[in-house]
Amino acid sequence: MRILFLCVANSARSQMAEGLARAILPASVEIASAGSAPGMLNPLAVEALSETGIDISAHRSKPLEEVAPETADLIVTLCAEEVCPFVPGPVRRLHWPITDPSDAGDIASFRTARDQIKARIEVLAGLINLPEGPKGTEFHASLRVRDLGASTRFYAWLLNTWPKEWTHRYATFVRPDLNLNFVLMVADGTELHHDTLYHLGIALPDRASVIDAYHRAMALGATVAKPPRTTWKGTPLHELWLTDPDGTPIEVYARLTPEELAAMPTDQAPEYLVPGTAPDRPT
After folding, report:
1. What is the average per-residue pLDDT within 194-203?
2. Catalytic one among 29, 44, 67, 79?
């Protein structure tokens, strides 16, 4: 993969982006920077990065032609008020409008720009070599609310539909055109976990897709809270529970076919779908 950072003078923002990207992204990623009207490397950019242990003192400002922009896989422009360089062609593009610290001319402004660029590159790092995820057919979200009546009115307006059903504890909205299943839950102060119904979820087509999502999650290094299983109590589902990096519960699920429902065991014990993942005492 080849990433090109562009601004006008290639003296500050794109230079810091190049240095930060080399330090943060995998070594297999080729990094370059350039400008449409290259000037001189700003010494404050060098100082700001040196504070983080990155040395760009040997960098120099370069014109677009020198870095072969047509060969880039990703072009990131960092201009804010100026007109950014444009490279034609079928290339993935990102625009990060970072205020030019050279206008202020003090180290504090360069530190601010440096930190903003660094945070964006850290997000980009997580997207490099990202494996393919599950093919969802529906997105589910459950949201805690203080006033169920007031929130139901608001979301009925926002989603332009009445809830499909509601009780004194929840209201469920379904928008097939948006592939959305949305639930409002009365806030009760309990800890967030899968049994509280406060979570995000993604529906998959069938049982095999849930098993496949488990293997994909393991390859990604995601945290598996509960391995794939078929549950019968409540809403019968094939389900996999993950947690995101902040601990938010994520349900990956598929609804049972009529034939699968007909095979429900009399004790309604969950069936674990991947050998070796069942706990000693099923839950």
Report:
1. 73
2. 79
**Total count of residues recorded for the chain:** 283
Q: Which of 29, 75, 84, 171 is catalytic?
A: 84
The question of whether 117 is a catalytic residue gets the answer no
Identify the burial level of 48 via C-beta atoms within 10 angstroms of its C-beta, where 0-12 means exposed, 13-18 middle and 19 or more buried.
buried
Q: Decide: helix, strand or coil at residue 240.
A: strand
Q: What is the pLDDT of residue 197?
A: 59
Nearest to residue 4, comparing CAs of 78, 60, 109? 78
Q: Please report, for residues 41, 143, 198, 240, the alpha-carbon distance to residue 211 in angstroms, rounded to integers and kept in the order given.
A: 53, 27, 23, 8
Residue 107's CB is within 10 A of a number of other CB atoms, namely: 16
Cα–Cα distance for residue pair 142/97, rounded to 1 Å: 34
Half-sphere exposure of 175 (CA within 13 A, CB side): 16
Catalytic annotation present for 84? yes
- Whole-number average pLDDT of the chain: 92
pLDDT tens, residue by residue, 262-276: 999 999 999 999 999
Catalytic one of 7, 54, 78, 237:
7
| Entry pTM | 0.81
3-class DSSP state of 260: helix
Q: For the residues of 187-200, what is the DSSP string, one character each?
A: ---PPPSGGGT--E
**Cβ(16)–Cβ(46) below 8 Å:** no
**In this predicted structure, what is the pLDDT of residue 19?**
98
Which residue has tokens 């677009």?
Answer: 64
Has 201 been annotated as catalytic? Answer: no
In 10 A of CB 136, how many CB atoms? 16
